[in-house]
Amino acid sequence: MTLENADSGSRTIAAIRTFHYAVNVATLALSAVVIGTDVVLRYVFNAPLSWGIEATSLLLLVMVFGSLPYVWERGGHIRMELIYSHLNGVPRVFADVATALSGGLFSAALCFEMLRTFPGMRARHEGAENLGVPFWPFAVFVAVIAGLMTLQFVVFAVHSLVRGRG
Amino acid sequence: RADEDIAARTKAARDYVEGKLKVPEYKITYDGPPITVRFSSFVAATVPLWTSYRGAFKQLEKESKGKLIVKEYPGGVLHAMTDGFKAVRSGVTDMTQCYASYQPTSFNLMNGTGNSGLFPDAVVGAVVAAKIYPKYMKKEYENIGVYLARTSMTPAYNLVSKKPIHQLEDLKGMKIRAVGGVQAEQMRAVGALPVFLSTPEAYTGFQRGTVDGVVAHDAAFVSFRTAEVAKNWADLKFATVELDYCMRKEFYDGLPKDLKVVFYNWLQRWNLVDAQLWFETYAAIAREKIEAQGIEMVKLAPVERERILGAMGKVDDQWTAKMEAKGLPAKAMMQDIKRLVAEDSKKSWNELFMETVNNPVQGLVD
Amino acid sequence: MDPSIIGYVGFAVLLALIALGVPIGLAMAAIGIVGSYILTGFTATVAQVGMNAWEESTDFILIALPMFVLMGQLVFHLRLAEDLYDAVQKWLGRLPGGMAITAVVASAVFGAVTGVSSASVATMGAMTMPEMRRYKYDEALASGSIAAAGTLAILIPPSVLMIVYGIWTETSIGALFIAGMIPGILLTLAFAILIYVRCWLRPEMGPIGPRYSWRERFGSLRKLLPIIAIFFVVIGGIYVGAFTPTEASAIGVIGVLIVGLFMRRLNAACFKDSLIDTGTTTGMIFAIIIGGHLIGRFLVLTDVTSGLVTWIGDSGLNRYVILSLFVLMYLVLGALLDVWGMLILTLPFVFPVMMSLKFDPVWFGIFVVLMTELALITPPVGINVYVMHGIAPEVGLTTIFRGTLPFVFVILAFVSLITVFPQIVLWLPSVSMR
Ligand code: NA
Ligand code: NA
Q1: ipTM summary value
Q2: Which of A95, B178, C47, C147 has the most Cβ atoms closer than 10 angstroms to its Cβ?
Q3: CB-closest option in B45, B82, B205 to C352
């Protein structure tokens, strides 16, 4: 929605949507399969999995952050539109810039923190004990997504400023 | 009666929190404003652990002549339970619970205190863990970017279940809720099936039969209400779990010299206050409550406990071999632990408390 | 500056941002970040952002959230929800306000297969609103009924809110689920009676629907079977200990997929749409959860809510007076804040007070759910009303809020009822959970 007029923009949206779909197919389906398998193995075959919870937790992380860019593109965040929908001109630009700043503050801080901490996570061997998977690649994934989100908010702010002037 | 017995055994600690115990006085020269120690915990303010905390906090204020004051953040309001290390490292809090079991993959020798049959109770456990810390664990713990505030050990872990456990064979095929990797291995070693359930689901899982048994220390059976749905209790006493507290480096380093000494020594007193007035006292109260609920209390025959511990011993041996292969002195550590446990088990809890007051372990922090 | 002043300023700016239309999750996160920065500096603040984002999105129990959303999505895309509406309508459509009553009852049944309130509004609203418009229902009544009935989804198990409450207060989630059943049925009934009475007094508000033969009515019941079967697998599986409430969410998804396969309704398109919508809803909810945590972490440092709660708790007042004060507090906070923000801010302080006053943790869990239901439908920030408005943009927000108002009073009356008769909540768990 933020890039609706630009050709490259619609390609970006399509890419984000495809990514969103791929992430959710993988994570939702895998989570259901892992949990379902764990239940059957435990209840029917008396052979519970030791890494089911760890695997599902990491899948959830990928699902949540893999979805956030598309949630923004599609205007999926819950907002109060009572006043916003009637705003025009400068007040509208003001509201949009406030939105971009709020979101940008969060995503930039998150990106920064993940980039700052992932080498330490790696050095300290932080990871899922039973699954035997290190955490740091997931921190890098979150950093990349948060970086992309920051970019989205910057683009949105610039667009609304340009539109407000025109 | 058990509660009279426990009151007599913990008299020194009790006197201490009531300000009745004679402790060495400090000369305090710092005359700046009082320094606030932000202490956060995931434990809700309703849990009686906080009564024990507050008793100790009051003594810190007294011993520092009002210069060290604890600001409490109960119930996980500042950070999640498992974020202890991160929260301390980044300055979100000054002191909190930082269990090695949150991130076992970051530790080596520290994971060894969970081996089977090492510590008889929370008091000896807390004392001995502190004594071996400087030599074996300090380096890997401080590697996380924090200082150890104090060691802490749970009472011995027992089992509640829906069928009685009298011998090793009764554990075979039982689905038992496990919390960590070491305990899962110990369960497998006795033929049980470790099942991983998150804490909020443990109660429902046990009640509805998703698991057949839960292992924990006795106070936890009552506070997490697993005892309510159990039919049997058995004194497996197979292991204890180390639950340490850590503090922010900049906070401790920044304390005036005189207050640093007060704080360091007080931390170890607090450690024994919790071990006696929370862990062991509430474990004893819990056992009475559990028995009063009509749950069958099985006391294992010594020979049967030996068989169970013997089976679990294989896991410990594998662990020791793994550590030694990494060039870490796991064998020596185990020998030191066993020697110290033997020595300190001869002392009464009151004697151990006085020893900590008069002669605190040195070298926990440089 | 006094931290509590920073806290009040933070609150004020938050409200301004929300009023301006800044997405709620982002506004809460931003205020949390700026406030923490002022009080604790840069390192601690970015650490809070990282910790909360990581911790919430790797909490195993919260996997139930996308799973129960997906379950609802599949039920919608496989047209099981349509069957449900159709069957209920054939039985209740002839009552005064019958279409609105149908929406309420169908929402309640739909609530038994989803745990998220907004999912229920989105699903049932899309189906029932056009029907009610065709029969010239009063717009406020129609949209208000759907928005209010959506809140039943968090009272009738499974419920994402109960899961989160169970985690935070270490209360048995299974017991909470069971405890929600009788109140859920009673509140559904109360909502239906409210609509019935209003339309009986003023028939033009809710004209009666088409007539069906008994044969058609009984024939329609068959269509309810898949949904009932899924509900029984999910709740029954928890009951016999085959799986935990969290695992039940994944089993439910698998169950719906199997039903879809058998009914030959499952195809790539509906699977794809379900997944995309689930991802979007999940991301949106987590943005609010993470934002809610961040502002909660900040406000804790300002002692604003803890001060209020301590003041109420230490007042030495009668436990019912204190309870009423908390109702008042939740009405105000619920009007202004999103559900997660509201709970993160209050639960750590209110829960210990309630326990010291000897309220049962399961009972208080249901109380919190009811307070949340109010928050979802009261202005200015009422998520269900926004979702309803999203489905029927031509119906104004003010109209929908006007429509939900009578339901607010019903919920408040119901809170009084369970306070006087706590057995309504506690009886079923006490007999079934041993
Ligand atoms: Na529900
Ligand atoms: Na509201």
Answers
A1: 0.89
A2: C147
A3: B45
